[in-house]
Design goal:
This protein is an alpha/beta fold. It is 37% helix and 19% strand. The protein is built from 18 helices and 20 strands. A 7-stranded mixed β-sheet has the order 9-8-10-11-13-12-18, with helices on both faces. Strands 2-3-1-4-5-6 form a 6-stranded mixed β-sheet. It has a 5-stranded mixed β-sheet with strand order 15-17-16-19-20, sandwiched between helices. Strand 10, helix 10 and strand 11 form a beta-alpha-beta unit. It is globular. It starts with a strand and ends with a helix.
Length: 584
């Protein structure tokens, strides 16, 4: 039996693929198994191929692989799309009574289970439960206790009444019993369960959870794939912690509303994707010039323009690093795992207030929509520290007033960070403007003050370089002459690729970079390496360009921009091939 089990359901958009996949993922996690999911969905409400894949094992899994053990095929195209991942012994569950599926061809060496999904669902109370019938059939194939599926069904449908829960349980058992009675086959799968307790969540949810843990009190946003789930997670939760969510009419309004909340003293955030960042860019400059702490989440997708809204890409790096007219100090944090989406969001709020500057959290679609299991201690709320920066009160504000008793919110300081007074602070009344200003916040065209203010804002980044830890995460063989560098969601696939490469006699050292600006100085890591490869999901190698600029050294590149995330075995092959080419 393989060390892990790979399951998928595929069909048309609107067929309930996502909810069905999540039910099975929850059932597996509640059974004490690790889970890693992957979604392929079309950019439309109905129609177009969509799929949900679950990889599960007793040990942690951090990537998807090119193998499918059980496939629930709701359309003939589902088999065609996954043919390369199916193998001898793969099980395909389908409903041969449906007109579109009655003549489906099962590839040689694979096992086709013709299960009347719709009919069995109707017997349980309604055809809409046909996917749950398929889940029951999959439980029989995988020798997975259906009681674990019951738990997930209760969570999914419990709020809609016990009758609906019972109907779905019956539908699942109809599927399991049909396979047991009609197919006398010894399937090779046996999904072990454990007593472990895991949290199952995706990157968008982790960002929302991190915002609440960090003390975020205000969120403004506009729905946009794949960032919408951040707002959906916060709604109904942040209110329990004294916070509020506002759905704006567009992204420009969202950042302006969030800016207003931040000026009022609240920890504030907005989240969007590339097209939304385009609209927010002008206000981004105002945030920086007015020295207002604000967290902006960019959940990247395939571009440019509308691009492929439901597909993976890391094409917004240059925009986050350099976007906006003029020279704008900023921080850009790039979570590399779903759990890091939580911790980097917490860190973003602290950096925003400590240095009074906008902070980007650079996530991507693969992080946003992927569900993964974690032990509860991975999100230790007691370990969350909140730093509000150089905030003054009635007792300390006198240190930051001029001879007339006026507060200086943009005072020139050695570290570049000025004092901050919340609204209502006695003798702390002040103004800020997008125009260049003096220490009081009043507009000025004085050349000396202009230079002093620009230099002061720039010093924030230099201060942060020395005061904060910008180290990369390191994996693999520390002594290897082959150095691989990457950022964002590629970490999990690359970590598993290291083991695959080792099996083939290829050793690598891997640096995963979660800080994109300021970022670690990699020159000392690159200089002794014989081969340096930068891995990322874009066409031009945006991070590779940055690495070459910083280290003054050429690097080789592995780029993927077809809208699909890296898989561990695929990435191992790309790395091996690249290393072979450069060594010739």
């Amino acid at each position: 039996m393989p060390a892990d089990f790979n399951w998928a359901i595929g069909g048309e958009a609107g067929d309930g693929i996502d909810s069905t996949g999540k039910i099975f993922a929850q059932a597996l996690s509640r059974a004490g198994r690790h889970v890693f999911t992957s979604k392929d969905f079309a950019s439309r409400i109905r129609g177009g191929y969509t799929a949900y894949k679950v990889r599960t094992a007793v040990d942690p899994v951090q990537s998807v692989v090119d193998r499918l053990d059980v496939l629930i095929a709701l359309t003939p195209r589902t088999v065609e799309e996954n043919l390369e991942e199916l193998h001898e012994g793969s099980v395909i569950i389908y409903d041969g009574e449906r007109t579109t599926m009655e003549n489906i061809e099962i590839p040689d060496g694979m096992i086709g289970l013709d299960v009347p999904l719709k009919r069995l669902a109707e017997e349980a109370g309604g055809a809409i439960m046909r996917n749950v019938v398929a889940l029951g059939a999959a439980c029989e194939v995988a020798d997975f206790p259906i009681e674990n599926l019951d738990s997930a069904l209760e969570k999914r449908f419990g709020s809609k009444g016990q009758s609906l829960v019972d109907n779905n349980k019956e539908a699942a058992r109809n599927g399991r019993e049909y396979v047991a009675e009609e197919y006398d086959h010894d399937f090779e799968y046996d999904l072990e369960t454990t007593d472990s307790d895991y949290v199952l969540l995706n990157g968008d949810e982790a960002i929302g959870m991190g915002a609440i843990a960090a003390g975020c009190k205000f969120y403004a946003g506009y729905p946009i794939t794949p960032a919408t789930n951040v707002m959906e997670y916060l709604i109904g939760r942040i209110e329990n912690f004294g916070g509020h969510v506002v759905q704006a009419e567009d992204e420009l309004s969202a950042i302006n509303i969030a800016l207003g909340a931040a000026r009022a003293g609240a920890r504030s955030m907005t989240a969007t994707s590339g097209p939304g960042i385009d609209l927010m860019t002008e206000t981004f400059g105002l945030v920086a010039t007015s020295e207002t702490p604000l967290v902006i989440v960019d959940v990247m997708r395939s571009g440019p323009s509308t691009g492929m809204p439901t597909k993976q890409e890391q094409g917004d790096l240059n925009m986050m690093l350099y976007g906006g007219h003029g020279e704008i100090p900023r921080f850009v944090l790039g979570p590399t795992t779903i759990s890091e989406c939580f911790w980097k969001t917490v860190e973003a709020f602290n950096l925003a207030e400590k240095y009074q500057t906008p902070v980007y959290v650079a996530a991507d679609l693969s992080l946003a929509v992927t569900e993964q299991t974690f032990p509860p201690e991975a999100f230790d709320m007691d370990a969350v520290e909140i730093e509000r920066g150089k905030v003054v009160d009635e007792e300390t504000i006198g240190e930051w007033q001029n001879e007339k008793g006026q507060f200086k919110p943009h005072a020139i300081t050695d570290d570049g960070v000025s004092p901050r007074a919340f609204p209502g602070t006695a003798e702390g009344a002040h103004m800020s403007t997008g125009l260049e200003h003096d220490e009081l916040g009043r507009r000025t065209e004085d050349t000396e003050m202009r230079v002093e203010q620009v230099d002061k804002r720039t010093r924030k980044v230099e201060t942060a370089r020395t005061e904060e830890d910008w180290s990369p995460r390191e994996f693999g063989d520390a002594d290897s002459e082959n150095l691989v560098i990457s950022w964002g969601s590629n970490e999990g696939a690359m970590v598993e690729a290291i083991d695959l490469l080792e099996e083939e006699g290829v050793d690598v050292r891997f640096l995963s970079v979660p800080y994109l600006f300021p970022r670690p100085d990699l020159e000392a890591e690159i200089e002794p390496a014989e081969n340096v490869v930068v891995v990322e999901c874009n066409a031009t190698g945006q991070f590779a360009d940055v690495v070459e600029h910083d280290a003054l050294a050429r690097v080789d590149r592995v780029n993927k921009y077809d809208g699909v995330r890296f898989k561990a075995d695929e990435l191992a092959g790309e790395i091996k091939s690249t290393l072979q080419e450069v060594s010739q």
